[in-house]
Structures
1.
Amino acid sequence: MRRPIIVANWKMNTSLSEASILASSIKHDLGSVNAEVVICPPSVWLVPVAEILHGLKNVFVGAQNVFWEQRGAYTGEISPKMLKGIAKYVIVGHSERRQYLLEDLEMINKKIKATLEVGLTPIVCIGEEKKRRLEKRTYIKPERIDIAAHMFREISCIFRGITNEQMKEIIITYEPVWAISTSDKSEAATGTYASAVIIGIREKIAKLYSQKIAQEIRVLYGGSVDRKNITEFLDQSEINGCLVGGASLKLREFLAICHEAGKE
Ligand code: PGA
């Protein structure tokens, strides 16, 4: 089995000293864990966090967002070219940016392309807003396709113009908006629910690209992941890792998640 990926999305949290303490503790504890760990601090702390984590072979830095042009008159924005050398990954299309900053599918498409252009890996978030009733029908193929209908439309738009070669570099995160810990009445999806939708996502990728790419592309789950439920997701063969928000800010909780993920 491939080494799982655990992405920490700190969102707009941490002071410089909190970020430095978290990063130093992560360096100290996770240097040899058998998982790939990606720390995504707020952009102002990218450089200090990258300096702390520098030299580790399995812990990397990611940005939470990026702009779609490489330079120019775009006040307040950060380009992929600027991130190159600091970060290895970029979260693109997170639902909070879509909700609060009206990021749309075309912008996400341009951001993915600009990120790939400089050799960074986009972690592309997709997910439905409302929970569907699927548990009992999970394994019926047409239903599964219905489940993922929303994602199918998104996938067609956000990956428009992305080549087969580029697609192999992308990481997709299935993150149902209703499952994010800060959303109203949030609850994590179950492993079976997430897996059923991810199977649907892979089927769509197979149609648009190839069966091989659909099998090889890494797909993560995100939404209320913690130390108690992490194995439920990683036990699913379709799920290659998790995106962790709230729990990634609690040091002991996050270390436990990564160690759990690193177990053979
Ligand atoms: P959560 O956030 O783990 O707090 O639900 C995940 C995310 O929004 O990236």
2.
Amino acid sequence: MPKIQVLPEQLCLMIAAGEIVERPASVVKELVENAIDAGGTRILIEVEEAGRRLIRVSDNGEGIGPEDAETAFLRHATSKLRAESDLLSIRTMGFRGEALPSIGAVARVRLVTGLSGSPVGTEVRMNGGRLVTGREAPSPGGTLVEVEELFYNTPARKKFLRSNSTELVQIVRAVELAALSHPWIQFRLSHNGRLFFDRPAVRDELERVLQVYGHGDPSDLIEVGGAVDWIRLKGLISRPGERAARRNPMEFFLNRRPIRNPTLAHAVLEAYGTLLGKGRQPRVFLFIEIDPSRVDVNVHPAKREIRFRDSQSVHQFVRHTLRERLQKEGFVVPGSFEESVPGPRSLSGFPIGSYREGPARDAQPRKGGDGSADQTREALEHYRPIESGLRADAPDDRIPSGSFDWPRTIETLGQVDDTYIVAVVDSELHLIDQHAAHERLLYERLRTQHREARLAVQPLLLPEVVDLAVGEAVGLREIGPLLARIGIETEPFGERSVRILALPGLLGAMDGARLLHELLEGYREEARIGEEAILSGMMASMACQAAIKAHQALGAEQMKRLLEDLYREAVPPTCPHGRPIRFRFTRPELERLFLRR
Ligand code: ADP
Ligand code: MG
């Protein structure tokens, strides 16, 4: 009996589905893209339980005729591609003909559709890969696709889903990405029957960006644009300066398709050069139109990655366009060698310094994350030396195991490297990490006040408005009440912004925006642990941010007060992250070291 067999069709479908339908957001993305390709002007997305129970996408596009409705569910059945040569001129979001059959393989799908102008439509169902014959149904005036019980027949995949909030973040992001590059379409998303957002049609992409992200100061963003014969770019980029946050989104759209791409990410970072602080990332929305024959979109099942035929020219064009714009705004890019670079008219063939294309990417959909941090990391990996890891401070036996005792005398002698306090405490020599010590102190105080429900709150004289990334906005809906319990009072301020009204009093003046970003980011990573653990983690973050920093010169009084507090309040001997606070040398130890004993 032969060992090699062709797999049954149903199994093929499941395997293909594995690549395309990773999570509810993938379904949303595929259905929304189909709706876009159908030429509608309104797309409604309804999800329940973050898409686990139900995903419903409806549009007012061209619809599918009765003779095609079943075919749409066959593998590699598409109306968007006829011949291989069409691959070089793809303008639609879809073309692989895989989405509907793949979704139908791992969920219960119902499609109702009708050609525009006809009152009669067709209904087709597919359950776990089995197609149910279509029948007549009233036309919804476009197409409606309902996906229920995703992964009901693939429990392994179901287990990999993250918390509802994480899955919802991905869904919101999928819709938002589609909305950004299709400004003439209205997008409406609701979750569990509640409207999440409604974005009416606007004039162009830039207006859409402001519609989605625009509750901050629009003057923070600079419009850019440029074109040569085969590539055109427009977009918004952030003004270099204070607001360049660590995890700003860098969104790239190529022929309206949202993509991740290290070439583009790197070109942007190079354009800003040292105008960005270390590890910072500008906020960037770039809409690029390129001759479809100059790019290969068929390298990734979800089409999130593409390959430029000539990535060096693209890199150079983007970097040049952005840098020129920044210079026009009066930002001199330090170390700029742009003066010697010819204008975009003579782009081809110009060498571009340190840039090289990364190794060919495999066509694996990447797990988790929104990709924008990913691509930056990737860009940096390819183009900068990888920093070596820090040497870990191994605690040793000189770290006391219990908490600190209350000493009789404390004499501070000074600092080493503006980081470690040197002190004589009851005739022992102590070395104290000022940041770790202060951090632990603040943390313990926060916890005590929280435990005893007497957390002192300091209202801000000027409430601080903070712009949030989509994940953060979703996170805040969930943890807003938790934040209030540890003294961070906020109120919504538009769809994507929030106002900080008060902070815990004992932390002193601190950067509320930074704190909030960090807490929301941390929360996302820890979303599944218990509430108390989340609160503790948040208090640790707050303490860390408010604490005296390393490399900060301290006066004698400050050092003395810190040490007195440290010893009086009997805090545990490590910082909340487990690093030691203190090393001490007792008198016998000193004697041994100097061979007196
Ligand atoms: P692809 O989008 O790659 O062509 P799909 O499996 O997503 O493949 O869809 C198969 C076909 O079904 C499409 O080519 C299109 O003709 C039709 N179709 C799917 N969704 C819609 C829709 N919302 N409106 C009109 N036609 C649709
Ligand atoms: Mg499609």
